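Note to self: the last two entries modelled the partners one at a time, which told us nothing about the interface. This time every component goes in together.
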Amino acid sequence: MKDMQKPERSKSLFRFAAPQMFYPLAGRIAPWFAGIAAILAAVGLWLGFFVAPTDAIQGDVYRVIYIHVAAAWMSMFVYMIMAFWSFVGLVMNTRLSFIMSQALAPTGAMFCFVALWTGALWGKPTWGAYWVWDARLTSQLLLLFLYLGFMALTRAIEDPRRADKAGAIIALVGAVNVPIIYFSVKWWNTLHQGASVSLDKAPSMATTMLTGMLVMALAAWAYTIAVALWRVRSLILERERHTEWVAAELNALEGKI
Amino acid sequence: MKPRSKRLMLLGGAVALLIGAVALVLTAFQENLVFFHTPTEVAEGKAPSGRTFRIGGLVEPGSIKRAADGLTVQFAITDTAKVIPVTYKGSLPDLFSEGKGAVVQGKMGPDGQFTASEVLAKHDENYMPPEAQHAVDQAQKTAKTVKQ
Amino acid sequence: MQWESWSAFWDMGGFAAFVWGSYGVTLLLVVGELILVVRRRRDTVRRLLRLRRANAAGAGGRRAFEEIVE
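The predicted structure of the combined assembly is written out below.
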């Protein structure tokens, strides 16, 4: 990584593909997304707990849905984004792409765990079991292992270029699992119920419940963007430590941190 | 810990996780891609005989009978085409009720009676307030009366 | 408003352990992740500053540099 890249002074959006340009941009916009996430979460929880009615069949335990669904969607979506950046990175050989996918992984893993955890706590009082080995639950557990495998592998390999490639391959291969998770409830007999919200039919939820759930999902998006951007900044500094602009940034930070 | 052994542990962890993942796919999915069989499949002999398996369907309305010991329950599970009688001894999940989904795990007896060791409730993807549920129930009742 | 009282709210229709167990663990993980992200930023900057000082120290600092890079 001794090769120093001259910053490109292109006017297009692509100039942000240069780590040097992206670093300050990420620092500027991350707090905004964090703020949006906090506001959306507050609104979503208020809707979910105080506006939305109780469920006719399940009672108030259904209120787990407001984090369960947001977390489960996010865990799948983040993995697809990681696979996308990995693909871009492998094809275009842009370092920032790999860094993006590595910055997203811990948050995706966190949401994946949250989906499994809240699902277990929801399953016990409704199904009568914390865990069953049906296709939906098993494939979601596999997603958690894929996240952890990706994180362990990219941290274990010393050479960043090789680590990037190895991680990208896991991300791409593992992406096959995401549609399996999503469609498992359609393709096979599962204990897990079908989707309440999907493209091919009207949502099967009361409007206030649905609104609360969607607002929480948006909060999860904003949170993920904020945290990933903050993480990207640390990764960029590490990767670009031999460059002049990082030296200048360190000068500015000296004694402040 | 030396950095190298730390790396080795991480790499070992990654490999172990991936092997675990593949093993999960191969075993759990092979056995449980079909989490349960429908009563029709069971009637057609498609369910495994001689070992435990699961049947999923609706609890037939009016079929739940509790024995005198207060623990043993008899009910029938149906996919509206075929009906399988089930006996079960133990506590039932809160959402278990007539006309609702359930998955029972156990063995088929030679007399066609299924002895369950575990009963799970399967709920659907509909969420609505009690008033709306009441309205839906009324509408369905009316629709049935009209049909008859 | 869905609740008769705050105690009814906290009781969650008898499902308090399941509902609050879900939300509690999620909150813990989110807060934990935020702390980790902030700490990572701090550690990265400090490590790079150390590395640079060691590097500036010249040949004598060479070994220290390798240690930090590891």
